[in-house]
Amino acid sequence: MSGLLGKERRESDVEWDYRCAPGELRSSEVQRLVQVVRDMDALDTGIDWMHRLRIGRPSLTPVYPLLFSSVVKVLLDAGADPNAGDHFNNVYDTSRERGIHSLEVLVSREDEFSSRLSSRAGFRGCTALHYATLADDPRTVRMLLEAGANPLQTNGLGHTARTYAKEGDVSTVLTEWEGKFQELQARREAEERRRFPLERRLKEHIVGQEGAINTVASAIRRKENGWYDEEHPLVFLFLGSSGIGKTELAKQVARYMHKDIKKGFIRMDMSEFQEKHEVAKFIGSPPGYVGHEEGGQLTKLLKACPNAVVLFDEVDKAHPDVLTIMLQLFDEGRLTDGKGKTIECKDAIFIMTSNVASEEIAEHGLQLRQEAEEVSRRKLADNLQDVQKSDDVKISRQFKDSVIRPILKAHFRRDEFLGRINEIVYFLPFCHSELLQLVGKELSFWAKKAKQRHDITLKWDRPVLDLLAGGYNMHYGARSIKHEVERRVVNQLAAAYEQELLPKGCTLRLSVQSEDREEHSAPSLRLEVVGEDSSSRTLDIRPPLSPEH
Question: ANK repeats located where (predicted)?
Answer without folding.
Answer: 124-156
